[in-house]
Automatic annotation (TrEMBL):
The keyword Chloroplast does not apply. Pathway: Amino-acid biosynthesis; L-histidine biosynthesis; L-histidine from 5-phospho-alpha-D-ribose 1-diphosphate: step 5/9. This is Imidazole glycerol phosphate synthase subunit HisF. Its EC number is 4.3.2.10. NCBIfam families: hisF (TIGR00735). It is found in: Cytoplasm. Its main location: cytoplasm. The active site is at 11, 130. Belongs to the HisA/HisF family. Heterodimer of HisH and HisF. The keyword Cytoplasm applies. One of its GO terms (molecular function) is lyase activity.
Amino acid sequence: MIAKRIIPCLDVKDGKVVKGTNFVGLREMGDPVEMATYYSENGADEIIFLDISATNEGRNTMIDTVKRTAENIFVPFTVGGGVRSIEDVTQLLKAGADKVGINSAAVQNPSLIQEAAIRFGSQCIVVAIDAKKYQDGWHVMTHGGRKDTGLDAIAWAKKVEQLGAGEILLTSVDCDGVKEGYDLLLTKAIVSEIRIPVIASGGCGKLEHFSEVFVETNVSAALAASIFHEGTYSIRKVKQICQENGVNIREA
């Protein structure tokens, strides 16, 4: 059985790590390079860096910050935000990213997923799906959770797998920053329909939330931000609790 992964996420805006609730009310948390380095040295299995304002501001991800981060960490590094073209993917991989996350642009131009997967390999392409609950199911949201595309999140997950994405970063907009646990219903619904790895994101606030999402669903990884950035729990403590609950987890 493949070991589960614990992934801290750095949401970056204006060169600083920020965190909010339901994608709004952002507060500054620290320097992305320093924080990524700390997590790399203290048990993170991977690090995800999301330039959360790049798409709305119509600009590319901050390449210099990506380069400096990549030079200081020794775990797999995924970067997303403002990725709109094959050239953007190329620049991020050259800057040191191991994987590139695509969200809004993938919805607008699904062929970008296929083209990127063919050129760089599926293992390099992560499609981020931000999902929000509506009466008829979960809708795919873009532009930092602001725009409802009307797309069914489950159908979209199946489509991106068919197009060659190697992994899905699944974030519940409803649970983001609320700290009451991952959206287990959403996560189960997506994971049960596809075969590629899924990273659960949005809502983690307690140690037990990690083991809960691993036990209740077949996700490959669990992502968190606030509880790590605020120093509430260490990654090593999270892994210890997961092991105690029978989860096959990578050693810290």
